[in-house]
């Protein structure tokens, strides 16, 4: 009788261990499967369509001033886009602000083409001129693919933004008492079987900040960093930030500086 009980217990224990091992293997297999799926899609990445649209919009004469964006200065001189993405956000003397790629593009659309920046900012993501901003950002960013991130910290405002971004990254709040670090502050965290990159250091930030704009397969949309941050705040149950706000710029500076040396992979494919 005792022998039967011992054998039964060993059987139960063995089954539990096999189940745990199977679950761990399933997680690993799912993550590997997602990676392979993205690799397969990369050859025909739909982001290329947004890139092509962005190039047309960059060169096309539009807006009340009937002008193109080819004189837009993204930090490397008027019209120079190669290498600009991997140095943004940065301080711009003409605006007296630290700006990221998307907010700088909106500023150029206003000054060069005559669009109303306030109206663009109020437009929902993926619609109207806001959709055009994302396409233009994809075009600009793609021209820096393979280049390494090297954000400046020379100007006092750039350093202040980094410190502000660091505070925001760890600041907890909202109905769930979440912070950015809740998901992206430790190794080994997952969501829906996908690994969450650690964004306060490399190499994790090299697959986080360095990977946007990206094409989202789940909703067939192109997302820039502004929308990525907006959605993160939504999921944390915080108030959604305003497009181009100091908070989103500060977080981008923090992550961008932490991504120093990482190669830009834009445009990428995400879930």
Task: Note the main attributes of this structure.
two-stranded antiparallel ribbon, 271 residues, Cytochrome Bc1 Complex, Chain D, domain 2, 3-stranded mixed beta sheet, disordered N terminus, 7 strands, mainly alpha, 2 domains, globular, 7% strand
Helix and strand element order? HHEEHHHHHEEEEHHE
Name the overall outline: globular
Class by helix and strand content? mainly alpha
Q: Looking across the biggest beta sheet, what order are the strands in?
A: 6-5-7
- Average pLDDT score: 86
- Taking pLDDT < 50 over at least 5 consecutive residues as the criterion, the unreliable ranges are 1-27
Number of domains: 2
Tell me what portion of residues adopts beta-strand conformation.
5-15%
Determine the CATH superfamily of the largest domain: Cytochrome c-like domain
Radius of gyration: 22 Å
Taking the alpha carbons of the first and last residues, their distance comes to 54 Å
Number of helical segments with 4 or more residues: 9
Task: Explain how this protein is built.
The protein has two domains: 1-43; 47-270, Cytochrome c-like domain (Cytochrome Bc1 Complex, Chain D, domain 2). It is globular. It is mostly helical and 271 residues long. Residues 1-27 have low confidence and may be disordered. The longest helix is centred in the N-terminal third of the chain and has 41 residues, at 2-42. It has nine helices and seven strands. Strands 6-5-7 form a three-stranded mixed beta sheet. A two-stranded antiparallel sheet has the order 1-2. Strands 3-4 form a two-stranded antiparallel ribbon.
């Amino acid at each position: 009788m005792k022998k039967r009980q011992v054998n039964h217990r060993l059987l139960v224990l063995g089954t539990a261990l096999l189940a745990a091992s199977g679950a761990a293997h399933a997680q690993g297999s799912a993550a590997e499967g997602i990676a392979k799926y993205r690799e397969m899609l990369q050859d025909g990445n739909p982001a290329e369509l947004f890139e092509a649209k962005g190039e047309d919009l960059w060169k096309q004469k539009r807006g009340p001033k009937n002008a193109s964006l080819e004189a837009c200065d993204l930090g490397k001189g008027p019209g120079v886009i190669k290498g600009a993405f991997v140095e943004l956000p940065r301080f711009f003397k003409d605006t007296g602000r630290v700006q990221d790629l998307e907010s700088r593009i909106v500023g150029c659309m206003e000054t060069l083409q005559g669009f109303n920046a306030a109206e663009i900012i109020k437009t929902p993501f993926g619609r109207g001129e806001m959709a055009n901003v994302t396409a233009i950002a994809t075009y600009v960013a793609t021209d820096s693919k393979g280049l390494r991130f090297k954000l400046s910290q020379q100007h006092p405002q750039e350093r202040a933004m980094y410190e502000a971004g660091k505070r925001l990254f760890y600041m907890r709040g909202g109905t769930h008492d979440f912070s950015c670090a809740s998901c992206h502050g430790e190794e080994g965290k997952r969501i829906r079987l996908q690994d969450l990159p650690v964004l306060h250091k490399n190499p994790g930030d090299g697959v986080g900040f360095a990977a946007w704009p990206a094409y989202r397969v789940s909703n067939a949309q192109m997302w820039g960093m502004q929308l990525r941050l907006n959605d993160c705040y939504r999921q944390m149950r915080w108030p959604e930030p305003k497009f181009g706000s100091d908070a989103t710029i500060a977080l981008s500076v923090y992550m961008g500086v932490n991504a120093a040396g990482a190669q830009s992979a834009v445009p990428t494919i995400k879930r």
